[in-house]
Amino acid sequence: xxxxxxxxxxxxxxxxxxxxxxxxxxxxxxxxxxxxxxxxxxxxxxxxxxxxxxxxxxxxxxxxxxxxxxxxxxxxxxxxxxxxxxxxxxxxxxxxxxxxxxxxxxxxxxxxxxxxxxxxxxxxxxxxxxxxxxxxxxxxxxxxxxxxxxxxxxxxxxxxxxxxxxxxxxxxxxxxxxxxxxxxxxxxxxxxxxxxxxxxxxxxxxxxxxxxxxxxxxxxxxxxxxxxxxxxxxxxxxxxxxxxxxxxxxxxxxxxxxxxxxxxxxxxxxxxxxxxxxxxxxxxxxxxxxxxxxxxxxxxxxxxxxxxxxxxxxxxxxxxxxxxxxxxxxxxxxxxxxxxxxxxxxxxxxxxxxxxxxxxxxxxxxxxxxxxxxxxxxxxxxxxxxxxxxxxxxxxxxxxxxxxxxxxxxxxxxxxxxxxxxxxxxxxxxxxxxxxxxxxxxxxxxxxxxxxxxxxxxxxxxxxxxxxxxxxxxxxxxxxxxxxxxxxxxxxxxxxxxxxxxxxxxxxxx
Length: 510
Known about the structure:
GO terms for molecular function: IMP cyclohydrolase activity; phosphoribosylaminoimidazolecarboxamide formyltransferase activity. Its EC number is 2.1.2.3, 3.5.4.10. The protein is α/β, with parallel strands linked by helices. It is built from 18 helices and 21 strands. It has helices at residues 15-24, 33-41, 49-53, 68-75, 80-89, 104-109, 114-119, 124-134, 148-151, 158-183, 243-260, 285-295, 313-318, 334-343, 395-409, 434-445, 464-472, 486-496, and strands at 4-9, 28-31, 47-48, 96-100, 140-142, 202-207, 219-223, 234-237, 266-272, 275-282, 303-307, 324-329, 348-351, 361-366, 369-374, 386-387, 416-419, 424-428, 453-456, 476-479, 499-502. β19, α17 (464-472) and β20 form a beta-alpha-beta unit. α8 (124-134) runs antiparallel to α10. The longest helix has 26 residues, at 158-183. The radius of gyration is 30 Å and the shape is elongated. The model has no long low-confidence stretch (mean pLDDT 87).
């Protein structure tokens, strides 16, 4: 008996051409269901698996290949003992298994009812793939149309067979991880709590030239079935995205969306090296951009900008004099895209994708593992702010405190943010001392600190930040509270005529 190939695929890309090429090389094809029909319709000689097993497909297709004639043919070692057993049963070897699985993740992603999702859990497919991968010394296993050409070679090396086997097990592992996540209760295949075991079901979605630095390889992966505004964004102008572009765009968009949910207007967020450097709210995209830019014209150079509204030609032309790496917005008008492509060809212009789901888990790499926590998603409305000073914040100060609190949450600790009139006027982030963070924010603000409100992502261990802020003209402060010296800090605020609010919630970000 000549070589036999079993082909049963959901993704039928190139399968007819592949099957025809195998037949031309003397292979016999076995197949089932839709793949059998596709090959037969194309005039490719093919035998139904049911003709080999002697049993029809059962239970609406749930049972087709779970038979010794199939799995014996795949799993038999190519040696006398196993081959004699096969021959005694009238079975032949199966020397190539080309299988990819029912579209489980795609079924989940389109919001199908549970019954349809369950019906798209493949059983026979993973069994054949794993059997073939186990016996890869004698069986070629293909789960990706990109490998079809390799299988048509006269000889496939041991190293290539082993690589294909590893790829097959990765394929079934990721498939099982998606099913596990779904059955644990999250239809977006993302964990929603801290489980005893966590499988990172990652699939590559983008190549990048390198990681944070040229000597570090890098790529972008999707977790499970999630969709994100940055990894699923459309690049409508400019160069391909880099590793750092993705990271900064994700940070900018997250803060932009959080502020956009607070009140009306258009928000613009400029980010540099993961930290906000200029944030503003205005009536339109151009005004918001100009305010965010002017908040720190030095740091915004080479930055990444997120705009929470449509970027039109007027807003685009306002960016003429500033070098930026990335612009991301929910929409960019065609004339603005055309202008960017002609006038700023290096600027990556992104139209944000729709975030289908966001994992509640935040992972930080450690040597040999990960530190895992729930994402810091506590909204302002979940707080119970307490005014702890004699002086109450005015309405405009409350607005700025809330604006600064959202911004400082997205800055690296230690962090202090000054805001006035819906614009950041001073930011200090990533400092090893809170007073240094405050000094940087005040220096950044200069005269604009007069009448500003200040937010700190953690409590004040001393009253030094209060006195520094008051000296610069700050009139209202928001911080978590909870320090041993809170009475001294409150007394200093009262002495200096400031209002101070405790949130009872900190926002460390390391």
